[in-house]
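Handout, section B. The chain below has 93 residues.
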Amino acid sequence: MIRSELLAELAKENPELRADEVERVVDVFFEEIAQRLASGGRVELRGFGAFSTREREARQGRNPRTGETVSVPGKRVPYFKPGKEMRQRLNGE
């Protein structure tokens, strides 16, 4: 599902909201998650899962075109852990 499909589905399920209102809700939802992760926090949505970040260590990589060794700095990356209900739904339990 892409963002426009999500917006269309939410608009269909909530006919009392205008399209721009639905879009604003989705924007705020994702912006709040992104801000919390950027500040080192965690976002937990019961029954769905939890968003957090993980640290990746610095490492030596390789330029695939030239074969030259390059230094790749450490960084934080987003991580999602599905909740119990989500795992059960995915596995048909």
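Note. The two ends are 23 Å apart (CA to CA). Compare this with the example in section A.
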